[in-house]
Write a structure and sequence with these properties.
This protein is α/β, with parallel strands linked by helices and about 240 residues long. It contains 8 helices and 7 strands. It has one domain: Vaccinia Virus protein VP39 (Rossmann fold, 3-Layer(aba) Sandwich).
Length: about 240
């Protein structure tokens, strides 16, 4: 695969192409607005994406000049990811492999950045984080975007409708701190406490204008609540962890 220094397709590192978030885009948007600036200039960087799925994130990062290796356990997802990168003219800046995140078949100190989205909940957290630390270059960053355990509405939804959720390892704040123990330093930020309420105007009574207005308002409420009552981040839906080797 050709390294991305010859790529002509570039995107401003501070912007987020919403269509490449693929699903729950309104809720992942503020998370990517938080993590992308911390990833810095991606030109020529080697990035590993765990659980690449249909390749939306890999495509987004490749368009910023990185060379992205995406791994997944589902062959048909890897095929979809390859098709997506072809559509966006970044196929030469990506590689997709069938691989388990708990057994990364890469040498030590290979990647500048590792990113995953809703992957660690399916695995042994400590095992994956140790593997990520091993294949990261010194000073590299591992970014884990994961579902938390105790959001009241999400917790109830999982209990009622997601039978397999009992087998998943959703994150508590203690789990987040445990991830940090495998790295030199870590910061984390939690998202979506009240803002899920906006889904009423999307899922039950679809009124796009009210959905957008309510989502914007509740995001502001979330920011204020977490800023002034930080202990309530325990009940948020998603955490973004940025770990440094």
């Amino acid at each position: 695969m050709r390294e991305p220094d010859a790529l002509k397709t570039k995107t401003d590192n501070t912007s987020v192409e919403v269509e490449l978030l693929l699903w729950w885009e309104d809720y992942y948007l503020p998370i990517f607005e938080y993590i992308l600036p911390q990833m810095g200039d991606l030109q020529g960087k080697k990035i590993l994406e765990l659980g690449t799925g249909t390749g939306g994130t890999a495509t987004m990062l490749a368009k910023r000049g990185a060379f992205v290796t995406g791994i997944d356990l589902l062959p048909f997802r890897l095929s979809e990811a390859r098709q997506r990168t072809l559509q966006h003219n970044v196929a030469n800046a990506t590689d997709f492999l069938l691989m388990d995140a708990t057994e990364l078949a890469f040498p030590d100190n290979t990647f500048d950045i590792i990113i995953s989205k809703s992957v660690l909940v399916f695995t042994d957290h400590a095992e994956v984080s140790r593997e990520c630390n091993r294949v990261l270059k010194p000073g590299g960053k591992a970014i884990f975007i994961e579902n938390m355990r105790y959001h009241p509405v999400v917790w109830l939804y999982r209990k009622l409708f997601l039978k397999y959720s009992r087998e998943l390892r959703y994150f508590s704040l203690a789990d987040i701190r445990a991830i940090g123990e495998n790295f030199r330093e870590m910061e984390h930020r939690e998202f979506h406490l009240m803002s899920l309420g906006a889904l009423f105007w999307k899922r039950f009574i679809p009124i796009p204008v009210l959905y957008r207005w309510t989502l914007k308002f509740l995001r502001t409420v979330d920011d204020l609540i977490i800023r002034y009552i930080p202990m309530l981040n325990y009940f948020c839906w998603i955490s973004a962890m940025i770990c440094r080797k």
